[in-house]
Specification:
single chain; 340 residues; mainly alpha; DNA polymerase, domain 1; hpI Integrase, Chain A; 2 domains; two-stranded antiparallel ribbon; 2 strands; 4% strand
Length: 340
C-alpha cells in the first residue's frame, strides 16, 4: 500500500447524500446531528463515517419498507417490529452480530438526540435487545516474543538508516511501550512529545483518546530514545509547530493509521514474528504483561484510556504461561516439588 499523507475524510457530498434519502424535515435533523457528533461529541472521522454508513442502510431500508423517503412523523411512528425487521434484513444479508450491534447503537444515538432536542419521541428502539457479540480478544505476544520484537527492530534498523525506518521503529516501541491505540499514535502532535526528565527517568506523553478524553502516559527511556532519534532525522519535523503532526507519511502529511498497520505487518515479517503481531495486539500485550507483573487493574485502565473498568477487566484472562507461573509460585506442592 502506498503511504497516505493523511486521514481520508469523506467529502461533504457523502453526508449530504445520506441525508438526501430522507424527507426535507428529517434531512435537516440528520445534518444537525452530524454537527453535534463532530463538535460536541468530538467523534473521530472513522467513527463518524461508520455511523453514517449505518444510518444510510437504515434510511434505505425505510424507503423500501414504507415506499417513500421517511419524515420525522414516519420515524416517530416506527414500532419495535420495524426495528426488528431492519436487523433481520441485516442478518439475512450476512451481517455479523458486531455489525448489527454497531448499527443499532448508531440508530439509538440518533433517536436519543432527537428526543433530547424535543424533535421526536419514540422509545420503541430502547426496548430492543442488542445483538450479542462473541467476546473476542486480540491475541497477545508472550513477553519473550515482545522482547524479541523490540530487540529485533533495534538490530534491523540502524541509526544510519533513513527516517522512515526510524519512524517505524519509534512506532513499534511506542505502541508496545505505552499501549496506545493505533489512531492515537497517528494523532500525536509534535508538541505532545515532552522533554525527558533525567531525574525521574521517564517522560509523560499527553494523549487524546476516544471521546476527546485526555490522559498522560509515561514514556520509558528506551521508547523516548526511539522517538527522539526519529525526531532528529525526520525532515518534516525541522521547525515544526506544536500542533503539527509528529508521525509523517512519505509525502509529508500526517501518517494514516492504515499505513501504520501495513508497516507493522512488514516489520513483523522481516523479524519472523507471529502473524498476530498487529498494532492492536501490541496494545493488548502491553496491558496483559503489566497485569502479569502485578500492576493494578485501575492503573491499567487509566493507561489504556478506558472509560469503564469493565472494558479493562477483559485483560484478566491471563496467558497459559502466566497461569503456570502463578501456580508454580503459589501452590505449596509445586514449591515443594521444585525444591526436591
Amino acid at each position: 500500500m502506498a503511504e497516505n499523507s493523511g486521514v481520508t475524510k469523506p467529502p461533504e457530498a457523502f453526508y449530504k447524500g445520506v441525508a438526501s434519502l430522507a424527507a426535507a424535515d428529517l434531512q435537516e435533523q440528520i445534518l444537525r446531528w452530524r454537527q453535534y457528533l463532530e463538535s460536541e461529541k468530538r467523534m473521530s472521522v472513522h467513527t463518524l463515517r461508520a455511523y453514517f454508513k449505518d444510518l444510510k442502510n437504515f434510511l434505505e431500508f425505510l424507503v423500501r419498507h414504507r415506499g417513500r423517503p421517511p419524515s420525522l412523523d414516519v420515524i416517530g411512528d416506527l414500532k419495535i417490529t420495524d426495528f426488528r425487521s431492519f436487523l433481520a434484513k441485516m442478518t439475512m444479508a450476512g451481517a455479523s452480530a458486531a455489525t448489527r450491534a454497531r448499527a443499532l447503537a448508531c440508530i439509538r444515538s440518533f433517536f436519543r438526540w432527537l428526543d433530547k432536542n424535543g424533535t421526536v419521541h419514540n422509545p420503541a428502539i430502547q426496548y430492543l435487545r442488542t445483538p450479542k457479540k462473541p467476546q473476542k480478544l486480540a491475541r497477545t505476544l508472550s513477553q519473550n516474543q515482545a522482547r524479541a520484537a523490540m530487540e529485533g527492530a533495534a538490530d534491523l534498523i540502524k541509526p544510519e538508516d533513513d527516517w522512515l525506518k526510524a519512524r517505524d521503529k519509534a512506532l513499534l516501541f511506542l505502541l508496545y511501550g505505552t499501549g496506545l491505540r493505533v489512531a492515537e499514535a497517528a494523532d500525536v502532535n509534535a508538541g505532545d512529545i515532552p522533554p525527558f526528565d533525567a531525574a525521574q527517568k521517564h517522560a509523560a506523553l499527553r494523549v487524546t483518546g476516544k471521546g476527546g478524553r485526555q490522559r498522560d502516559v509515561p514514556v520509558i527511556p528506551v521508547v523516548w530514545q526511539a522517538l527522539q532519534h526519529y525526531r532528529d532525522i525526520c525532515p518534516f519535523l525541522c521547525g515544526a509547530e506544536k500542533h503539527d503532526p509528529f508521525f509523517y507519511g512519505a509525502r509529508g502529511g500526517r501518517l494514516h493509521p492504515g499505513v501504520v498497520r501495513d508497516r507493522m505487518k512488514l516489520l513483523r515479517r522481516q523479524l519472523g514474528l507471529p502473524e498476530h503481531m498487529t498494532p492492536h495486539s501490541l496494545r493488548h500485550s502491553f496491558a496483559t504483561h503489566l497485569l502479569e507483573e502485578g500492576a493494578n487493574l485501575r492503573v491499567i485502565q487509566e493507561l489504556l484510556g478506558h472509560a469503564s473498568l469493565k472494558t479493562t477487566q477483559r485483560y484478566t484472562e491471563l496467558s497459559d504461561e502466566a497461569l503456570l507461573k502463578v501456580y508454580q509460585n503459589c501452590h505449596p506442592r509445586a514449591r515443594l516439588d521444585s525444591s526436591e
